[in-house]
Amino acid sequence: QQLQQLQQLHVPPAVPEEPGAHGRLRGGDAVLQERRPEGLQVSSGLQDLSLRDRGGRRRDFHDLGVNTRQAMVHVQESKTGFSGRMVKLSTNHFRLTSRPHWALFQYHVGYSPEMEARRLRSALLFQHEDTIGKTHAFDGSILFLPKKLDNKVTELFSRTRNGEDVKITVTLTNELPPTSPTCLQFYNIIFRRLLKMLNLQQIGRNYYNPSDPVSIPNHRLMVWLGFTTSILQYEENIMLCADVSHKVLRGETVLDTMHSIHSQVGEERFRDACAKELIGLIVLTKYNNRTYRIDDIDWDNNPKGTFRKSDGSEMSFVDYYKKQYNIEISDCMQPVLISQLKRRGNIQGSVALIPELCSLTGLTDKMRSDFGMMKDLAIHTRLPPEQRQRELGRLLSYIQKDDNVQKELRNWGLSFDYKSVSFTGRVVQGEKIFQSGTMFDYNPQFADWTKETRGVPLMRAVPLDSWLLIYTRRNYDVANTLLQSLFKVTPAMGIRMSKPSMIEVDDRTETYLRVLQQRVTPDTNIVFCILSSSRKDKYDAIKKYLCTDCPIPSQCVLARTLSKPQTIMTVATKIALQMNCKMGGELWSVEIPLKQVMIVGIDCYHDTVSGKQSIAGFVASLNQPVTRWFSRCVVQSRGQELVDGIKACLQTALRSWSKWNKCLPSRIFVYRDGVGDGQLNTLVNYEVPQFLDCLKGIGTDYSPRLTVIVVKKRVGARFFAEVGGGFRNPPPGTVVDTVVTRPEWYDFFIVSQTVKNGCVAPTHYNVVYDTSQLKPDHVQRLTYKLCHMYYNWSGIIRVPAPCQYAHKLAFLVGQSIHREPNMVLADRLYYL
Amino acid sequence: MDKNFPEESTQVIRFDPPLYKQRYQFVKDLVEKYRPKKVADLGCADCSLLWMLKFYSCIEVLAGLDICANVMKEKMHMLSPLPADYLQPSERSLTVTLHHGSVAHKDPCMLGFDLVTCLEVIEHLEESELKKFPEVVFGFMAPSIVVISTPNSDFNPLLSREMVYRHPDHKFEWSQAEFQSWALEAARCYDYSVEFTGVGQPPTGMEKVGFCTQIGVFVRKHPPTAESVQSEKPTEAVYKTVFKAVYPSLKDGKYLQNAVISEVVFTAQIIKHRLMSKREESGHDPERKSKFQPSMDSFSDYLGKLVVETNVDPFVRGHEVHVPLPTIFAFPKVNRLCGTFEKLCKLIAGKVPLSSDGSAVVFNIQHENEEN
Predict the structure, then answer these.
(1) Catalytic amino acids of A?
(2) Residue A4 has pLDDT above 50, yes or no
(3) Residues in chain B whose Cβ is within 8 Å of chain A
(4) Which of A274, A766, B203, B249 has the smallest C-beta neighbourhood within 10 Å, fewest atoms?
(5) Pairing, β A667-672 against β A597-606
(6) Considering the entire predicted model, what is its pTM?
(7) What CATH fold (topology level) applies to the domain A461-583?
């Protein structure tokens, strides 16, 4: 049986037979090309070049060539808003400049007789550096030069080691202007070359400076400072967008971690605990500069096991590492880690890795929940604006001062502005908060109205006439304290509250479930559980039962949260608000000037641990003030497209809307979150048509105005308000729709939230489809208004509320419920 | 498993593993045997051999020399330290340097090597360069061992190719007799002994033709006298350095200090953790000193057996846990890193919170309890 296990591993431990070989993952360029919209002239050869550089994954991370603005006539002239006051901003973009009349010359290089090996092709070509020059980029068939050769077709003659004469034909195929998409890819390749020249280490997509790490010995962590960079065509210029990035590395191997897990949990739970903690983590191998994701742990294997080499022979891991890297594996009892090699989502085989030779990178969920660790880490990673700009300045000065880098740039005829771009943005006026007929202003600096609305009746308070309070004997006191506090805070909110049925249980999941089965009636408003530990299985079981089999809103709170007398009133207030929303209550509103509008938010959750499910949360407004929401989700197993399910969601949402409003909405806004880098094309070409299709299916005379906006939280752009010669975070409500936006898109940035530490991240909004005929200013304002409507936070958040609701829903389903919740709950925010 | 015999199928001789790999393996075996500290590869081309050699822990200095800078540059970044080298700095130090220059020129950067390899290079040299080669390599560089490989023309008829030489750039290919007479002369002249061997076994029955690649291993007969090293060696640098990488090493104070601090804090935390869970078991009795028995603990296997007997125990005072430095020093990883207790104290001074008398690592546990 052991043998059979081993036979399955065909692929050697993904290490080159020779240094630098990247052979395995190449090929198949043509397929990628098919999916691109026409008019995009990115040569497959160049893609190959860029990917060979990175060694593996191929994906257009910048969504180049998805030109959505051209289809929207009303924003052809201008996509900028006008309201608000001006604010002077600087950013982390740096202009790339090229010589006047600069062009990049693209050549096709042919060999006669045909030569297969790329290295040989390069070697033969570069025998003629006197002709083609010293500055070149060549991927084996496409050659880029900064100069034009004398003739359109140049014939060169070389001789191979075997004495074979080869004719090389270099044909000029293209003269590329600085703004061509191919050139953009080319700039990025050249820039990566520069970073390499600066001796920065590549980990994943970014480059890090290993020589000056910050070590945090308390947690055995090491933080490397590095940079994420991309060069793109922005509104008027080609610019480098550079941001500081931190890589958290751990000074221990996977084997070390396994040992410490073993000492913590003991033999019995060891394997489970390892799987839980290690699967999904990214490891760095000791012997080459590659990163792998741990997909599985093979406990039946060990370093003495064998794998099949590419030539078909069998070799043990111990021998392999000894022979290839002179590495002695000291522990032959350790299991073997399995990493799947994926190419565009398809598994291409797997790689076996030895725990002892793998270093961990990044943080585990367990570490993320360690408050102390995150605090220690934040000191180093949350850089305030001033410091962030200083670090960026350092990168730029490295580039500026390094002779080799400057020479390379000069040879290509390129250079950078070493001062970041500055421009003016707008700060739109703050929104007024309405709650029970009263209007509140709040300090826009803080983006929070907790204080202002404290003790004010809610917009719609749902009474607690019949509810259950479930607790363990140990938490009897806590339960009573909570109850008293709730009785104190609810009257001011206008919530009528009766005494709950107090139910004492022992601390077992089955007991909780039995009590729920016996005591929940159709009249129950809500079930309140005080949990004594953050054990996920109990929480999951309760949520699963009350979201699917017996659809009743529920509130779970950890006893610990309620045990501090100094905070109990604040906590009780928050809980009261949350319960009210879960039962269909409303808290506050902002002015929404549009009539008959339905606002939709979509976000996705991908189960990283089991990798089996994807969940899309779908949330749509139901009423005019957008205070009530219809919520559904789509659960898809791997390989299925989420879009079909989303279409069904939209249909039911429209039905609900018409039930509530006695008509169909005349405008629909879709805020689509959870779109990964490089997926924009799919969204535009598949998902948007499905939305339209769905609307068509409602009725022949029904054609509402549709706006689809892609929301992106993870963007490289950072903005800094220039205040008194220094840099500050821009205030909430800052809108940027010039200079650093993309010319081919109808897009803008909004900084809606505030942060206590570090730099605020703007959210990017890309309107990919719009028949609303609204001015950009109105779309921006509406978007900002919606950031005020998330009821779990009495302040402004990073994304429009429906996106955050959709995220919450998808997360709950993905983490705990794993199937679609009961539709009875759909008109309430039961997942808050 | 290593079949050094060529497969003779329809006249074409193929070696398995390929000949170039056999040459590399030959050098690797030599490195295993002699464990040289400083190794130079003349004509290092794309640095493949250097890349393989960087994994040998005996080597502290690696140098490459080639007449073509571009071919070296193509893959030179393979010789850079990897992230893991920074994460777990090695005990040895390693510097890798690539030079652009000719084996016909003397440069002081090539002095003091233990092993110099020169695989498939001499046959590319012009007559004038070949003439200077022995003086430069044996006379000037004068390493303890020199390995020179070159094609054996006696073998060529078996290769059944139409060309005169195996590579168009070859200026000559020597028979066994030619190579051996050249080598013996050089050895005699510069006081080396030489042994001949090779890789690429001839087919059975044709042993006479010798190895496909012939190799001479030259060993210097006498250690150079202090004088000969000092005197008459020119100090003028003629090679151009195209690449230099200094690997992080525990020999460098900065890395050593980081490693020690990390290990000390980590060890102390495990001891503290252990102490606290013991106290929990035995009920909260702040006065009671817990008995510390590392050999019984499940984690002790992980940290290793104590290398020094210690009877200083960790203890709790008020809101502080004290883990005495001698206890920490007794653990093998810390012990090996620091060597002496004094060094331990010096390295962590000011970097790790210590008790007022500096005898113990101190943790404040007041806030920890609040968090939970």
Answers:
(1) 603, 641, 673, 807
(2) no
(3) 1, 28, 47-48, 51, 55-57, 70-71, 74-75, 77-78, 80-84, 86-88, 161, 163, 165-169, 258, 261-262, 264-266, 269, 298-299, 302, 352, 368, 371-372
(4) B203
(5) parallel
(6) 0.79
(7) Rossmann fold (3.40.50)
